[in-house]
Amino acid sequence: MTLLVGRRVLLVEDESLVAMLAEDMLLELGCEVVVAMRLDKALALARNEVFDLALLDVNLGDARSYPVADLLFERRTPFLFATGYGKQGLEEAYKAVPVLQKPYQPAPLEHLLTRLLIGGAQARKWGIGSSMSCVCHTPNGQPIRADHCR
């Protein structure tokens, strides 16, 4: 049993096949998943519902998920971005947010979400932003890096 079991996760992803894959991975980890495929729906969910974590695709068609990220920051909900472009694809204001490289892989997804929970709990306990950094490895030896989890 992991820290992710029973956690409510907002998944913002505009590609239906990618969303289904990510949702399946999150369900396998024991999460309760709410999917938003459009910016307006993601904003409404982020405003009106409570989530333990969020996973945001950066590019949502012709929009970006940054307004959702801003709401999550305000609500102190830990989140990460998912993108095929890595940190280079983020606007400067969001460079401290952890990034999950697409395509989604189960081990890095679990690792980063767990780190977000741990970092978020520490930040709330001390009333500050967390500057946790970790370098871990998947079972096949690939590095997983999560810098400055919020």
Automatic annotation (TrEMBL):
This protein's name: Transcriptional regulator
Domain of life: Bacteria
UniProt keyword list: Phosphoprotein
Gene Ontology biological process terms from the UniProt entry: phosphorelay signal transduction system
PROSITE patterns with a match to the protein in the record: RESPONSE_REGULATORY
Record PTM 4-aspartylphosphate, positions in chain: 57
Residue ranges occupied by any Response regulatory domain in the UniProt entry: 8-117
Family annotation (PANTHER family): PROTEIN-GLUTAMATE METHYLESTERASE_PROTEIN-GLUTAMINE GLUTAMINASE 1, STRESS RESPONSE REGULATOR PROTEIN 1
Source organism of the structure: Methylobacterium platani
One Pfam assignment: Response_reg
Family annotation (SMART domains): REC (SM00448)
InterPro entries named among the record's database cross-references: Bact_response_regulator, CheY-like_superfamily, Sig_transdc_resp-reg_receiver
